[in-house]
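Budget justification, computational time. The allocation requested in the original proposal was used primarily to generate structure tokens for proteins on the priority list. As evidence of use, we reproduce two of the resulting records. The first is shown immediately below.
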Amino acid sequence: MKKTNLLIPVLALSLFGWGCSKTTSVKEDASSPAVIDIDDLIGGNNGGGTTPVAGENAATLVTTYAQMNAYVAMRPLNNPTNIKVTVDLQKDSRDRYYGAVMISYMDNGSEYRGVFQSGNAENYGIKYANGNKMYEHDYNYWWMDHNAPVFSGYFQDQWGGLVLVIDRVTTQGNNDGMGKTVLSGSVWYRNFPTVQSTQSPYRKCWFISLGPFDCRSTSVTSKNAIYPADTYTKLGTFTGLSKSATFKTSAY
């Protein structure tokens, strides 16, 4: 995204994801809430309902022209329409989620898509770098806030970081646990500034603690708050995502 040009002599630090201190990992604080298995909590491997239906992992993203224009940044928008968020995540054996979140919209007769990813690969081992022995998606999990399940997770594309938040889980229809479970939440973004240094091929931005590609949020890393308002900007809200189509326990 277009930002004020910065000449920052931190190419090596940005490339390898080094921080200011000689730490070898970045982990959630000891006081972080416990990871929960959302499927056990709401019942059924897919949270009620049947096999996911195509399209149920997408929802309208409620936002404004000003918010979309700030998010896109690299070109002026005319009249963006059909703005959607699409979520496709997979659970690992530790109840963490990896996959992609896509923001799409129509403008001037063309469709634009931003695909933000968080993989299931272990970070490449680099001496003194942050995040060694951790997986890209280690911070993407459900926990309990005021007796309700919530989720936050990091994702990234070449232009910046994105945080997906789920703050409401609703079961529709039957009272026997077999009704459809739908999710509501919000999307937050943090654009990278325009710089001459190179992004690291070895680290996602939430493991970088120095330079223009640092996209960390204490709220997401430590789960001390639901929303990453400390370092991210809210893009919009959504309702009606299918739990079974977005937070999967197995491939379909």
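The second record produced under the same allocation is shown here.
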Amino acid sequence: MTRLQFDMDLVELDTKVNALLLGLPPELSAAVRERVTFYKTKMPAFKVEEIYREAGNLTRLEMLAYLDRRKYLGMYNRRFSEYKIAEHVRAIVARETQEERDLYSLARVNFDLNGLKALNDLGGHEAGNRGLKLFANILNFGATTLWLRDELKLNVVTSAEGGDEFGIVLSGPIDLREKVQEIGERYAHEVYNTDASHMLDFGKPEVLENLKLLGIAESIPADFRFRLSTSVGICLLGEAFDRVDVNRAEAAFDDIVQDINNAMFAIADERSARHKSAFKKELTKTDPILAGLYARMSKEVIHLEKRIKELEKQIKSS
């Protein structure tokens, strides 16, 4: 191989690797580049395509740290959401001039799925997983998300953050203060009105038995339809500044960025909790059966009730 060909191969490899790593977290990119640098020392024994293929394999492996472990959801985790917020904050600071709108062009949205416990305890974890997948599909590809992406031209990064908690990082060219309420209402309405009735068969003997143990089997009408719902809490970047002293001299920039990140998550979570409380109070008026399932469903209660029944039988037969 001539020196010219070798240099051309290096340029080709660097171009491909740069494209592969574009937009990925810096620590991930650094790990992949370090390995690629090692393979470069073994050229021409290793061909460009071989090194590039290995870089791709390593990238997928490194990305596991940023993905939710429930593969059927196909979503990033909280760590990646934090990275996207930090990336956006750094981009704003790096601009020559900042506008007020910049502080309201980034939002953290917190979701808490209602109904998962009922699905798990009545229909088993398979039913719970179907509920989680349905909710993930709404966040990833649903009407509200498409509206955000296609009409508002926003970047939407969804995340699954353990159990029934999910999130979104929104960023884009508009002032989101004008859209916060509508965004929350659209997601809550879409989830509540998406058909989830097929996820629980109230005619199944095991489901009926669990309902009897909770004392609510007789109160469920034949035409009852199970629904999922979600609480929503949203925090804009500018709102996090009320909790973070960004001007403290002794703090490193990365620490301040992390504090802003933490504040955005905390505020969104607090608002989601308030929304959840208000929604459940309203649900007791509009759909008391569903509210009862949300509130009274407990695997521990079911287990305890079963044990009480067994003990009662033992006492009667003794």
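A brief technical remark on that second record: The radius of gyration is 25 Å.
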